[in-house]
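Figure 2 data, in text form.
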Amino acid sequence: MKYMQYKGVVEREYKKSLRKIMYEICVIEGLNASLGAKKLGVAKEIFVFWRNFYRLDMNQQLFDHTVANMDQMKFLYLNEATGIDLTRPLEYEDEQSLEGFEELLERMIEYYKYVHAESNGLAVETGNLPLYECAQQLLEEYKTGSLLAKVEQQKKKAL
């Protein structure tokens, strides 16, 4: 038999399209090629062909998901980046204070958002953005006193 003949037999047996059958076996049930072929009653080579044709291999799905995420990521900071002026002077440039630190964090976040938007989400250096956003959040928690409260709570748990 040929691939199309096997396809017809399997679709008649399961009363579904081959795409749906393969999705259930590969994604929902998570069967490997040997077990999936055995379940369908076809040769492993045929099962692997179908799995690759419908892009249901785990690596193919991961790749497709990553590509879809990258397409969405390029629009992430597009609106914010239009209003960013990286050449404006720093207010706390000549002092080392929490205000100066906060200003530098904000400027670095703006810079990475700008680079992200200009590169359509493909610049590797924008991987630093979460680090600066985390530092900004920690600084805000420090200023509000919630970071101290967390430390006190951890002390109580340790006792």
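Caption note: The mean pLDDT is 89.
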